Amino acid sequence: MAHKNHYQILIIGGGTGGIMTSAKLLCERKGLDIGLIEPSDKHIYQPALTLVGAGTFKYEDTIRPERKYIPKGVDWIKDYATRIDPDTNTVGTRENGDITYDYLIVATGIKFELDKIEGLKETLGKNNVCSNYTDPRYTWEVLRNFKGGNAIFTQPATPIKCGGAPQKIMYLTADYLRRHHLADKSNVMFVTPGTVIFGVEIFAKRLHEICDRYNIAQAYYSKPVKIDGPNKLVTFEMTGEQPELSEIHDKNPERFGVKTEGKRFTVPFDMLHLAPPQGPPDLVASSKIAHQHGEMKGWVEVDIHTLQHKRYPNVFCVGDSAGVPTARTGAAIRKQVPVAVKNLLKVMDGDTNLVPGYNGYSSCPIVTAYGKMLLAEFDYQNNHTPDPTLRKFLDLTKEHRALWILKKYGLPWLYWNMMLRGKMM
Ligand SMILES: Cc1cc2nc3c(=O)[nH]c(=O)nc-3n(C[C@H](O)[C@H](O)[C@H](O)COP(=O)(O)OP(=O)(O)OC[C@H]3O[C@@H](n4cnc5c(N)ncnc54)[C@H](O)[C@@H]3O)c2cc1C
Hints:
The protein is an alpha/beta fold. It folds into 2 domains: about 5-110 and about 280-355, FAD/NAD(P)-binding domain, CATH 3.50.50; about 115-275, FAD/NAD(P)-binding domain (3-Layer(bba) Sandwich), CATH 3.50.50.60. Helices cover about 25% and strands about 25% of the residues. Strands 1, 2, 5, 6, 7, 8 and 20 form a 7-stranded mixed beta sheet that branches. It has a 5-stranded parallel beta sheet with strand order 10-18-11-12-13. It has a 4-stranded antiparallel beta sheet with strand order 14-15-17-16, with no helix packed on it. Helix 1 (about 15-30) crosses helix 8. The longest helix is centred in the last third of the chain and has 19 residues, at about 330-350. Flavin-adenine dinucleotide binds near residues 17, 281, 283 and 331.
């Protein structure tokens, strides 16, 4: 289908951020001229992938047709954006040529960088090396065939989406092993490049209690650098100068059969789950809208409170591509979208008095057992910012069954029926 070559508002990416933003814009102001570039005809509800990996949610139920969620009145350009030139307000595409815009919203998500760990590309999805990020069905296959041994869970030194996801599947695995009388034959370990188990103190305390409950060993300050799939060995490297942090915190660390060599240590595994290394999409990183230097290099350079681009006022960004120092989650996007939309409409109306409304809110629904969840909500300062309604009924510093029900049934329903429709933001 031939598309126009100019839109008042052009959105790149039709995942969580792109669809929520287009829907919210039309809720706020009917008749806007919006084009949305998205190549995929499937929309995946990613938060449920954790449950798929634990065999408690059907993979098919995480996927719905993209078409159903593109709001009426939005022109879906089923194509890849190849270039962003903010000086000429132009986005290049693979099949539809150049498209120009008055205002641009970038919602292109995050990119997997499998090359950043030696051996990962060759072995991911085989040899009991699994990731809910790439194929949760294989995680479940590995888990249900696990008969005991070392189950190792880790994450890379790069930013990742949903920083809690590598731990969620670990707690579910540990619970599964307990329920299937395999816990005595199993050694579970969490290895992270971070220096703490969680950035918010109250939840760090809870997660340590949960690790104790499951007898989960922990090693900090260590990143995965090499995976030898056929021999089932994973090698980690210390990420800093504090060797005591990367020691294995456990009553009996010998049980893992670790071999140490200088700053590296190698662990045999019978199950290895990891979040792959991640980074900004090439489209963004190679464009002038990206931070050109520093820690945020490659991510879109937005004001962290208004979500407006710092150098190109007609450009906004929401979601995983944004250079904002908070956890990359759908929950964060739910709070970003109303702010970005409000500010974009202000810019369109010639009002330069933008609202610095986004405080870095993000949340991590940490499933801690089949039937239990801890809801960690926080802001840029890592303050605990519990939901005002839920906190009336529940002590939100603790695990609850009601939160598990929210995760498994409530949030997917809210996502498909409310959030993607621009409601309940
Ligand atoms: C295992 C797992 C568990 C998670 N758990 C949770 C959770 O419990 N709670 C929570 O809130 N979040 C969770 N998340 C994170 C959440 O799903 C993401 O943060 C969120 O979906 C990001 O939205 P986004 O719009 O930035 O990117 P996405 O939803 O990934 O969408 C990006 C879109 O951009 C498109 N795109 C990319 N490049 C181009 C291009 N060049 N041209 C055109 N289109 C392009 C892609 O096709 C894609 O559709 C989880 C994620 C995973 C993987």
